[in-house]
Amino acid sequence: MEKIQMVDLIGQYAKIKEEIRIEFDRVLDSAAFINGPLVREFQSNLEDYLGVKHVIPCANGTDALQVIMMAHDFPKDAEILVPSYTYVATVEVIALLGLKPVFVEVYPDSFNIDIEDLQTKITKNSVAIVPVHLYGQCADMERLITVAQSHDLLVFEDTAQAIGANYIFTNGETARAGTIGDAGATSFFPAKNLGCYGDGGAIFTNDDKLAAKIRMIVNHGQGKRYYHDSIGVNSRLDSLQAAVLKVKLKYLDSYSEARRTVADRYDLAFSQSDKITTPFRSHFSTHVFHQYTIKLADDVDRNELSTFLSDRNIPSMIYYPVPNHLQKAYTYFGYRNGDFPVTEDLCSRVISFPIHTEMDVEQQKVIIDGVLGYLTS
Ligand SMILES: *Cc1c(COP(=O)(O)O)cnc(C)c1O
Questions:
Q1: Which residues contact 264 (CB under 8 A, 6 or more apart)?
Q2: pTM tops 0.90, yes or no
Q3: What's the CA-to-centroid distance between 65 and ligand 1, angstroms?
Q4: Is the CB of 241 under 6 A from ligand 1?
Q5: Residue 377 pLDDT more than 90?
Q6: Are residues 279 and 130 in the same domain?
Q7: Of the candidates 198, 222, 249, which is a domain's last residue?
């Protein structure tokens, strides 16, 4: 049996190697490394896949979030509402732009932004909400949009972990994660559900004016060459990365399906244990399982479980051990331990197990037996 990995990018590459090499050769033979035809082909294919008017490729998911915010020229005291339980990038860009992240609690079951708490955190300085579709499942967008509209707030979706997930509206209509708010940001980091072979990211929007502004900002704020209308950044997706993404996009739905199959098998096995709460599946979103993250009961020693597994060559990860409001870098915002009890509790009891497109039943059985073996010992 192959060594178990959190993510098996080698096994995945082996299956698409020929196709990737053909697209790589197109880039290499043309030397169109920056803004080459492959970037436009991928962009257009992704627009079709998502059903969104504009995809603007950029250098990574963090830039995608930053550029969306730069495009709005928010005043210095502007507040951006963001879940307390998320990857740091969501918070970092807000702080970097001199704006104020205002944390919002998450739901204990879905780990996504709590709409009731959100409403209590809105002030006259609030300008936008950044829902994060954590681990691959959409936040409650319909209720969130209603709140946003009634307070005149923009909505920027962080869909770095949920590309390909479908949001299901009450009227039965569906929309891809990242295409529901005013803009969406995603990441093509290798381990993401649609990952390239380096860094990459993209912004989604249906707003023509916003798209035009974002296209300028990612290119040094330049409209016409060497005429700079606003302060911009240099944030591009390489043609070689676009080549990888163009190939992998064709398989994204089957990759999501493969991840769901793995999740279903974990759910079934772990439902036997009263020490494990398996991932919540909401009625308004499909789940693309960027992570398979469970909650452990109070009396389980998470460190001991993780050591027990790693002694048996089974990797596991904690996403995330320290909530953002308690990170050293952000203490200046004045948050304290106890401000977000759900988030703090999750950080102390979640654990993620390997999930990827290449997981076979035999490997998964080793993981399941390891986990259940520890919990019943
Ligand atoms: C990965 C990730 C990002 C950042 O993406 P990069 O491409 O690594 O910059 C942002 N938000 C979330 C929720 C992520 O998981």
A1: none
A2: yes
A3: 9
A4: no
A5: no
A6: no
A7: 249
